[in-house]
Design goal:
Strand order of the largest sheet: 8-11-7-13-15-16-26
Protein name: Subtilisin-like protease SBT5.3
Keywords: Glycoprotein, Hydrolase, Protease, Serine protease, Signal
Structural class: alpha/beta
Family: Belongs to the peptidase S8 family.
Number of strands: 62
Strand content: 25-35%
GO molecular function, one term: serine-type endopeptidase activity
Distance between the termini: 48 Å
Pfam families: fn3_6, Inhibitor_I9, PA, Peptidase_S8
Helix content: 10-25%
Amino acid sequence: MVFSRFLFFLPHVLFFSMLQRPTWAIKKSYVVYLGKHSHGLEISPVDLELAAHSHYKFLGSYLGSPEKAKDAIFYSYTRHINGFAATLEEEKATEIAKHPGVISVFENRGMQLQTTRSWNFLGLETNGVIPPDSIWEKARFGEDTIIGNLDTGVWPESKSFSDDGYGPIPSKWKGNCQNNNSQGVHCNRKLIGAKYFKKGFAAAVGILNSTDIASARDDEGHGTHTLSTAGGNFTKGANVFGYGDGTSKGGSPRARVAAYKVCWPNCFDADILAAFDVAIYDGVDVLSVSLGSHGSSDYISDSIAIGSFHAVKRGIVVVAAAGNYGPTDYSVSNVSPWLFTVGASTMDREFPSYVDLGNKQKFKGQSLSQDSLPSEMYPLVTGDNAKLNNISVEEAQLCMPGTLDPKLVKGKIVMCLRGDNAREDKGEQALLAGAVGMILANDQESGNDLVADAHLLPASHISYKDGLAVLAYINSTKAPMAYITGPTTQLGTKPAPSMAFYSSKGPNTVTPGILKPDITAPGVSVIASYTGASGPSGQPYDARRVAFNIETGTSMSCPHISGITGLLKTLHPDWSPSAIRSAIMTTARTRNNAEGPILDSSNQKATPFSYGAGHVRPNRAQDPGLVYDLTTDDYLYFLCAIGYDDSKLRSFSDSGVPYKCPKSATLNDFNYPSITVPSLNGTVTVGRKLKNVGSPATYKAKVHAPEGISVSVEPETLTFDSVGQEKNFNLTLKAMQAGAAKDYVFGQLNWEANQHRSDGVLQSYVVYLGEHSHGPEISLADLELAAHSHYKFLGSYLGSPEKAKDAIFYSYTRHINGFAATLEEDKTAEIAKHPRVISVFENRGMQLHTTRSWDFLRLETNGVILPDSIWEKARFGEDTIIGNLDTGVWPESESFSDDGYGPIPSKWKGNCQNNNPEGVRCNRKLIGAKYFNKAGGNFVKGASVFGYGNGTSKGGSPRARVAAYKVCWSDCYDADILAGFDAAIHDGVDVLSVSLGSIAKDYIKDSIAIGSFHAVKRGIIVVASAGNDGSIGGFVTNVSPWLLTVGASTIDREFPTYVELGNKQILKGQSLSSDSLPWEKTKKMYPLVSGGNAKAKNASAKQAQHCKAGTLDPKLVKGKIVVCLTGGNVNVDKGEQALLAGAVGMILVNDKLSGNELIPDAHLLPASHISYNDGLAVLAYINSTEAPMAYIARPTTQLGTKPAPSMASFSSTGPNIITPAILKPDITAPG
């Protein structure tokens, strides 16, 4: 079901006071706005010249001559915007403002910049896979839409702006690139325009700083980040210091882009208007404006409002940031009704970094610190307890520049309070004073709002409440200690979205009857392309350079909407800017991914003053059904309604006849996609008009009335027979008693049509209904009745059982009662309220928790099975049936041979799916094999890997029967997992092994918890892995108490591979390399080089250290042994990259976090994996000589190693975040 939706709310009367400003006889820069030009459709050079001369003549009448006017004017807006910017005395500006042909005169003020998981979170892709119904596919990735960006310019060398695979530039494009100095911008078929505007900045401030590049080249990074978010290419390997690694892309990745540099870094009105005038002329389709001022101005004195009005008149969508002055009410900027105004919210990705205190308390923070601490505790001190003499406590608490005493800080972790100076600057001050780390604690106003910054030292940003706990600990002991873990990347976090603390809020101070912001989108910790001229912290002392950076602000949410707008422009080129805005607003969502309301940073329910219509859903916006459209005349009507007179509006009219205000203009009839009544006194009726942009349908009004207000709609039903048809309705609001609206109250109106469904807005969900009431023997009739009950139940929501049958792709009919279906999100919220429904949750993906062990566990001794072994007593698990939910089975393996096995146990009801040439043929050992993709072995002699670890492979129950349930197809989805459980329970397994998992979640929304509960009820033991998310507390998964949850530890076997250095040092590593270097008599040493010293030209040293794809230079690698650092990419892949570059071997060195944990991988070249400390020794040797040499010995098999077991660093640990009173994991075993 698709519906169009808008919000209405009724606050108190708002009061404003306007103060008269004094006038001084000094010169300042001003913008004189005259309205529109009267050029024809095609603007000629003569038109431009005549317009400029008219400005000189007009101003000359005040200054004494056109020549004086020409000297004073530094911008003539000659294309679409009519006006000029000039240096004038205030008295003269006041005089000019009185001229009847002048709309407004205002000072040239400065504005501020409102500073790739997000597209996955918005549903355009799923784990890197773009589904066929994604708006990306349908809108051809925004192909040939032109997105302009008013910002700090562009870094053209970024791969986000490469033109590989692009055809000719669209013929309508009139723009170009300014490239008049050695640091200019060279355009291509992707980046088709780049211009800069600095005269307004120079007039207001003076000449450019020496660091400011006088071109459209971006030296700040902000413009490159926003432009690539809106329209950047698909670019692999996007990460910040290895965190958040993935593929960067813009909302319209195949759009053409143009940069208009107006910020240096402040952005002045005169430059902004000049850029608008040029961008309109150049031919952009979308303008992204991540700029704004603190507070809002009258529309005719606001350069963004003026410029965007002229743009929207010409069909250009203008998207603007709401501002970063939250959470204060009335702080929203860019409030004109023709602008699309965007707030900022979180997405489902975090970069957790934990703070461990000496009293065993642990706090979760956020960070993107490049460096991490060795695993030990450090002294802890607050900034105010480490202050220099003559420095105030308040300044030192904030770690302001020059406030910390190195004698009191050196070698310690410093706690700094958020506020006043930049977060990264606090870390810089701590580092300069000798600190080893920083805990950044929020002040009370910042609350729970945490930001992952690229700090210069190990750091973690924690909440206000956690900061109080750290402070209490410091004050409780004479020797406080702490440790900060290195950051990790965590996906699928909940709840999300939540409103960002800084995101500016309504009400709208200029026109309280217009709701702003309009929408919210991801604006927290967004990774996108960055400049090569500045470090990731943006601070002048930061010498680091990155290709991608993480940024936070409404500046980041704005280009998300710009990119989505570009898609809609491609998909629906006939839609007006207002129709596009309406489509996005009326299909937005006000709930989070935990199915609760969107929260603010204090975990309180947010309101439309924060998020507008809600959180954007791009796939829904492509087919909204109905839109609230607006024309230029509608906007002129709006200006009449708020008190503008005919003389002010005359210059805006497009027709030969000037626009004339009607006698009675009211905002109640302004066709905005939301309704706002600033003061409700009695009864108010508002009118709206809906335009059909979908298939014929009948829509019915559904109202969620505000508290204390009655709402009626007339008519309640609207029928549309054709595209473009328009129909009116009235909505009447009445206070049910005097003073009912004592504060702001909010409601919602939906127009719903059962007949109208959008193909691109569906997601898959699991609806869990509990237990079936079948008898002991389940018949085919039982299964059929169960399925029909699902069709009937869902059909009551979708309109018919037939529609339900189309939507359901799994009916769980045996033991688990429920179904998996493709549904619209709003429909799932409805279903979840039904009393029979236990839970409804999204069909999410899980990850796989990716033999000497039985000897180590004492089931045998050197291959001899002792009489008291449980193997003997339990007859090797004979005829027990073990099922495995995983990636399937390779039936040809000798582990699954049925030699010597008798008949299959009579209780077994399962079989093998073998309906294609590559199916699985079962036997008396492997008795079941099934796969679900709609969303223990024998004794085997000679088991080894390239001859290492040679012995007899066997399962824990080597005489058990086994069954494979394939539920993983790289990822493993809830719907398939539940289907696998339901089938396995019915088939008759005795044990289920489940090496899968994700972040721990509520039991009734966890497919493994649900499936295992039904299995355990029937006497089946379910064993599950604890997870591979490392030693950070609280990451253990599969925590339900009926599961047996298993951690991982080592055994007493190793595969040592020694590294011999040219200085005679010998270091012990691990490997299972199939090849080895020449040895014994022919042994020779080989040249040794670190990846960082062998980097390709376009690669960073950080990437090359990790031997990432394409980062090594074959000229510097060929014939050598390469040293690669763990992390970032797969260990075996590092060897592949070294081999491709011509290396003869690889030394794989642990980072600090991995420490001493070594893994023998089957590398493609001779290799050895060594510890962090041994890696430091190798690095020290390389740096000590001009010709470092090394040799890697062949791996061997070593048994009886000690100590063992040791816990694996990857093994997830408690506490149990769902039920802390239940210890998880339950046990550890070889892993």
